Amino acid sequence: MFAGCKIIDKIGQGGMGSVYKAHHEALDKYVCVKLLAPELAREQRNIEFFLREARSAAKLEHPNIVHVYNFGQENNAYFIVMSYVEGKSLQDLVNEKGALPIGQAAEIMTGVLHGLSHAHSKSVIHRDIKPANILVGTDNVPRIVDFGLARSISEEKQLTMAGEMVGTAYFMSPEQGLAGKVDARADLYAAGATFYYILTGKYPFDGKSSIEVIHKHIGEPVPNIMLINPDVPLWASRVIDQLMRKKPEDRYQSAAEVIEVFTKHVGEDTNTVPVSAESTFDIPEVTARLQAAQRPQASLESSAPKPPEQQAQTQRAAPPPPPPPNAPPQMFPGAKPALQLAALHNGLKIAVHFALTMAGTAAFVLAGASGTATGVLASPFVSNPVTAGFLAGAGAALYGWALWQKPYKFTMAYTFCAMAAAAAAYSGGAYLPAAPGADIVAKGMLAVQLGFSNMFSPANLIVYSLFFYLAASKVVFKGWGFKAGAAAAYLAGLGFTYLYFKAGADVTPEKIWLSVGGLLALVGLVASLTQKSFSLFFSPQLFFLAANLAMFAMFTNPQVEAITAQKEQAEAAAAQQTNRANLAAWQQEMLAAQAEVAYDDEGRPLQPHLPARPAEVLPQARGKLQNAARLEYYKALSARISGALAGSAGIIFIAFFLALLANAYFIEELVESFRQQELF
């Protein structure tokens, strides 16, 4: 006996404790007794959570909510006595039978929403609505259980710590994932996720960890349920979509609104959906995808295999429904409308974005070329401010328009490429080697001429090396085809770096740096073919960057040593010449001092005052000369690269390459966005 109840059998074990079936002697009925685990009862916070469930549920008297008869403490154990439901949880029901038919699912969700409506009217928010917390009795009446996370809106004492997330990740609203302010609309979001789950047998968002799932709830659109289960009617898809909006203000504002929609579409007697006037058509590619065998997905709650009945139901594809009577014929027989429209839409967006970025880059080139002084970045806005301002504004507007085309309005990589492309284009225009007095049209034509004539110039090899490195780094973690292409691009870029610094070099490259560069390239090649994501300690980007720096050092160090040797010779000659001059001057002073005879007052000769021998002047230390030689070489190399790039339109090449990279990021975002919506 415990709390007036005779314990019969243990029926469950939860995170807070155990649940037993018992017989209440005074009420003469079967009840459930929930006991707080002894190890949890040692902390007052856990006791308050446990008792809060009892207080929250005790406020509620509704046929769709499990009733609490008693709660408290007895024999140093905390307990809750609640009504016993003969049946199964909605989670177990889906595990056994698979996705539920729309009529049964809508009937269950209507009862759940009635229970939530009552709870919300009493200012109680459940905050953990999920299939495991919904019991379906043998009478097919759903009842909400486990108010352990519920709280009253008017409750002054907050039991949850600031910034703490509570709830189950698979059904958690975005505001709960962000640990923000939660109200009744969070329960509606969880109800929408539950409706999605029981209609498909799948979670709306899945992942390898709770953090990944929560991140998807916050930032990704809800997958199209009709592509997972074609039997789901359009009205149910729209209900789920509105229930699971990211912003609470965009959802249904009360459970009563959702109940009204369910009542409108579900027959009161047969619980079937009335015949709709909507026409349907088969999309072969989607049907083929639905007929393919389902891949096993990771689960946060259970790794047990699904029952054979559920596997069979999941793998079966519903045959396409027959066309309704008097339906108009398809305009294009055998066509795939949704997929063709999606592909056409994507293609148009890619083409428009490409045109906008290329035109914006060209506008910045002309803005930089509108000045009168070549090589002076401020010249366009000093000598021709109206034209420069108009062209720069046009370029910025075009890039802004391109940004507006993006699915995700701000991403760091895209923004960097776009801004760098604009800056390089402006600089390339300013450094065009145009004749004095040339107008902007002539400079534009000169830029085109230089671009085509120097497209394969050795002066632009460093530009191609940079482009190949950036392009390879962009795709190196994708599929095997991309990995092979990235490895080839990395090696090509490394070869271009070698050829660029070798050109015109009359020194023998250091073999040690050649060996180091080859080893780094080999390790980078292995990393590019094996790594699936960025790793700081085994990154192909870092290894190939180091390999390019080794190629640079291979030719730089010998030239620095040659300049250092020249400086040492010059310094030694200068020191020797100075020492000779000082010695000759000292000898002259000695002869003059010895020839001069002085006498004291008594006529005795005085000892002559001889000058001190000058100290030897030593050349500067080799370390200082080497640093000066390195600085001199870097300045000369910088002037060589900038002069070559300016004379061959290489800076403009860099600008357009960066714009192309921005287009690659745009295409990647577009594809990812449509994949999330199951429409690409």
Overall pLDDT level: 79
Q: Beta fraction of the residues?
A: 5-15%
Helix count, DSSP H or I runs of 4 or more residues:
22
Sheet of most strands: 5 strands, antiparallel
Spatial arrangement of strands, main beta sheet: 1-2-3-5-4
- Percent of residues in helical segments? 40-55%
Regions with pLDDT < 50 over 5+ consecutive residues? 149-166, 268-283, 293-339
Give an overview of the whole structure:
Among the domains are: 1-84, Phosphorylase Kinase, domain 1, CATH 3.30.200; 85-152 and 164-273, Transferase(Phosphotransferase) domain 1 (Transferase(Phosphotransferase), domain 1, Orthogonal Bundle), CATH 1.10.510; 339-457 and 648-680, no CATH class. Helix content is 55%, strand content 8%. It contains 22 helices and 10 strands. The protein has helices at 44-58, 90-97, 102-121, 174-177, 184-200, 210-219, 225-228, 234-243, 255-265, 284-291, 308-315, 337-369, 379-383, 385-404, 412-430, 440-453, 461-475, 480-502, 511-530, 540-595, 622-647, 650-676, and strands at 5-13, 17-24, 29-36, 68-74, 77-83, 87-89, 124-125, 134-137, 142-144, 151-152. A 5-stranded antiparallel sheet has the order 1-2-3-5-4, with helices on one face. Helix 12 (337-369) packs antiparallel against helix 22 (650-676), helix 17 (461-475) packs parallel to helix 22 and helix 18 (480-502) packs parallel to helix 20 (540-595).
